[in-house]
Every structure is written in C-alpha cells, then in structure tokens.
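Sat 14:20. Reprocessing the chain from the morning session after the first attempt stalled halfway. Input below, unchanged.
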Amino acid sequence: MGNNPGGLQKQETMFAYAAFVRRQKRPNSIYRNHPGTDLRNHLTQLGRDKRTPFYQNVHAFVECTKASNERDSAVILANVRQYMNGMKNFLRESGGKRFRQLVDDAKRKDRLMVFDLDAILESIVYEFVVEPLFDFLIEALSNDHYNNVVDMIENSKDIAKLSLHDFGLDVEPLSPDVMEVVRYYLKKMQAGRNPIDKLDYFLNAITVVVKSAISSETLEPAAIYTDQLVPLLVWMLVHCGVMTAEMEVHFIQSLVHPCFVAGEANFYLKSLHKAVDVIKHPQHLLENYKTRPKHVWRTGSGYFDPSKELKVIVPDPATGVPYSATLIKHSPHITASAICNTMARKLRMGNPELCSLYKLVNGEVTLLESDAKVVDLLKEEYDKGNICYFVYMYEHGQITWPLNSKPL
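Finished this time. Tokens:
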C-alpha cells in the first residue's frame, strides 16, 4: 500500500495527542509562525555560507573525521557528539550581534512558551554535522555490528516460532493492520538520517504496539507492564524483521542529547537494547519457555529467581517515571528495612530517612512496614497470579507509566 498503509490513519488519530506533545520537544520542530523560525533560518544561512567561521569549522571537522584512521564506531560517535556540543556553545558565544538580536526577538514573541534555543541549535548541528557524516557513520556501525546482525537473523528464525504466550504474555496476536502500521514506523526509523527522527519513529511504533495489546482472557485492552515490555519488543523486532536494531540504538543514544531522551523515551530505548540482547543470546529463552516457573521473570537476556535476587525499581522524583532498576542479592528472610539500607548505599542517597520501600500490584502502591518479609510477599502475589514490583522512592512519591499502563 505504499507509504500510507491500511489502518495508519486510524492509529495516528488514536495517538495524535501523544505524538503532538513529543514533536513539540523535537529539535527540528518547525511549525507555522514559530518564534524561532527567523533564528533558525539565520543559522542555516551561516551553515551554508562558505565564508563564515561556522561553515569552515564544521567542514574541516567533517573532512578530518572521514580521513581519520579511527574505525571504532563507538569512538567516532562519541567524538561527533562532543563536537556537536562544542559547536552549540560556539554559536551561543560567537553567533554575533544578529544572532543575539534574533534570540531576543524570539523570546519576546514567545507567548506559547515554545521557543527553545537549545532545541534549535541541536537541529542545526544535526543538519550540518550529522547529515554530511551519515553514510560514514552507518558504514562504521555496519562494520562493527555485522556479525551481530547475522547472528540475530539466524536466531530470529527459531524465536519466530514462539507465540506471545510462549513469551509469558497473555495477549492476543496483533492484527495484520496493526502490524502493518508498526512495520511502517520501523522502516521509517531504519531509513531516517536524523537521530531524533529515528527516535520519534521508534516511539511511534512501540506506542502502537502497547496501545493495541488485547488481553487473551477478557479480549479488552491489556496493560503492558515493565517486565512485559522486553519480550514484547523481542516479538515485535523478530516479526517485523528489524535485525539492525542494535545499530539504531547506538546511533540514537550516541547522537541525541540526553535532554531529548528522558523519561519514557529513555526507558523504551533501554528496553530495546535488552530485547536485542535476548535475540543475540536466545538459548535460555528457547530452552526454558515451556517449563519456566511463573515466579521466575526475565531481565535482559536471562531470567532471575526472586529467591536469590530482587529487582527494585527507582522512579524519577519529579516525574514518577521509572528510570532504573537494581538487582539485589539477598537472604530468603530479607526485610524491607534491609533493602532500603542497601538501596540508599547503592544510590548514595543524602537523605535516606525520607525514602521507603513500596509494593506495587496492579497499579496499587502499598507502603511496606520496615520488618516486612519481602520474599514472602512476592511469593504470595505470584501465587495469586499477580505481577508484583518493589519500588524504592520518597514517601508520598508517585510511580507513573509504564507500571500503571498510563500512555505516553
């Protein structure tokens, strides 16, 4: 169906608001009467004028990078990102009188609070640094990840034989229309040359998958929880044939500024990286999916038993979005207080007395007493058929998506 697959319009309408919010934060967002349009046009002219220091500096860097003997893609990407940061600072400090005037004008026009100087500068360095180097960067990534791509192609043949239920997911297979939409976004991600565009297409794809999940028991929309996201991504990558996902992750994480990969986006990228690891090393998955105990759940490429290790989730204090998960080895009788002390040491908390351990089941958060036996509580919930999480956070804090199925 070309570039407009069936069902695409319906799905895009469903996620219109989420996409709109994301795109306002994108560095290359340009919409009608944007207060920063004149500034961006001015910087674009500087980047194309061979007489300007900006053009000469960038051109020299691009040529030197291509001529360098360095072929390690991680080193090259890190150097490019470092140079991008330097050029943004150069434009801020040496942009000239016209630059400062346009910045002031944009701030005066900014009634909707949409002007973001850093986002505009980011889009400029994408255009004049990343774009000329794109083919060179992809070649370096391809050389470094070629063997992994070959392994993933071979491993995916066996993984493709597993159903969603074999992955431990009680959801129905996605409809052909939904899969066509997901493939459309993933192909756009692979074809994209701008790292922020690649990120946006990936987020669109996973949003469609998460919002389209249907429970096998109730045939109603199903909530996708944290530990279910990695196997869902494995299934998605295998059935959409995206075996270059590892290259995409490295390209995005290395070149997109951290401020544009925060919250849900960061969580999704980390989950994508874990899904790639599962496809690269599928032995445990393929050998144990039929006999896996229900109280053993997955993390990354393997599984861990809560009788030996516990995973404790830490949400961002400002947004409530989970940004890390820590594995804690423990005794069978470990208490909530002991876990709090361990987490305080691991995170180097300055005021650990303000934090507590919580149990999260079906979106309901329960504060645990200091002497609560955590492993016993976990087994109780699994015996009831519930997915149980432990959350270390400030008292009266919040834990938001993806644990309570809140959308993007």
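Residues 1-25, 28-32, 291-305, 401-408 have pLDDT under 50 and may be disordered.
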